[in-house]
From TrEMBL:
Residue ranges constituting the NusB/RsmB/TIM44 domain according to the UniProt record: 7-136
GO CC, any one term: cytosol
Pfam families reported in the protein's UniProt record: NusB
Gene that encodes it: nusB
Protein purpose: Involved in transcription antitermination. Required for transcription of ribosomal RNA (rRNA) genes. Binds specifically to the boxA antiterminator sequence of the ribosomal RNA (rrn) operons.
Keywords: RNA-binding, Transcription, Transcription antitermination, Transcription regulation
HAMAP family in the record: NusB
UniProt GO MF annotations: RNA binding
InterPro entries linked: NusB-like_sf, NusB_fam, NusB_RsmB_TIM44
Family: Belongs to the NusB family.
The protein's name: Transcription antitermination protein NusB
C-alpha cells in the first residue's frame, strides 16, 4: 500500500474514532498517534496524517456545511460515520489543503477507495456523487491532470 494511501486510511480511522467519542477536545492527537503506532510503525510521513486530521478538525464547520449543501437529502447525522469522515477528508484535500502535489481527481479517487474499503456497499457511489458535485461547483480546476 502506498504511503499516502496508508496515511489517509490512518487519518480516516483516527477521525472515525474521534467522531465516535463525540469529538472530545484534545483527543485527536492522542488517537492519531496511537493509530500511527498501531498500523504504521516507522512511517516516515506522519506529518501528512496530522495535517489531514487537524485540517479536517480546524475546518469542520465549513466542511460540514459543504456536505449538507451537496447532499441535501442526507442530514449530516444520518450519514454513516465512515462516509461522513471520508467526505471530510476528501473535501479538505479538494478545497482546503492547498496541496499542489494532490490533483483534485486524486483526492476524489482516494476518497472513493477509502469509502469502498471501509464503508458499506453504496459508500463509494455516495462519496463519488458528493465530491463530484463539489468539484463541478468549483469549476473543475486542474481537470486535465
Amino acid at each position: 500500500m502506498a504511503n499516502r494511501h496508508l496515511s489517509r486510511s490512518i487519518a480516516l480511522q483516527s477521525l472515525f474514532e474521534w467522531d465516535m467519542r463525540s469529538q472530545e477536545k484534545d483527543m485527536l492527537n492522542t488517537i492519531t498517534k496511537h493509530n500511527i503506532d498501531e498500523f504504521a510503525p516507522g512511517l516516515e510521513d506522519g506529518d501528512f496524517i496530522f495535517n489531514l486530521t487537524h485540517g479536517v478538525k480546524d475546518n469542520m464547520k465549513e466542511i460540514n456545511a459543504l456536505i449538507e449543501k451537496s447532499a441535501p437529502d442526507w442530514p449530516l447525522d444520518q450519514i454513516t460515520n465512515v462516509d461522513r469522515n471520508v467526505l471530510r477528508i476528501g473535501i479538505y484535500e479538494l478545497l482546503l489543503a492547498n496541496a499542489p502535489d494532490v490533483p483534485p481527481k486524486v483526492a476524489i479517487n482516494e476518497s472513493i477507495e477509502l469509502a469502498k474499503t471501509f464503508g458499506g456497499p453504496s459508500s463509494g457511489k455516495f462519496v463519488n456523487g458528493v465530491l463530484g458535485t463539489i468539484y463541478k461547483n468549483m469549476g473543475e480546476p486542474r481537470k486535465e491532470e
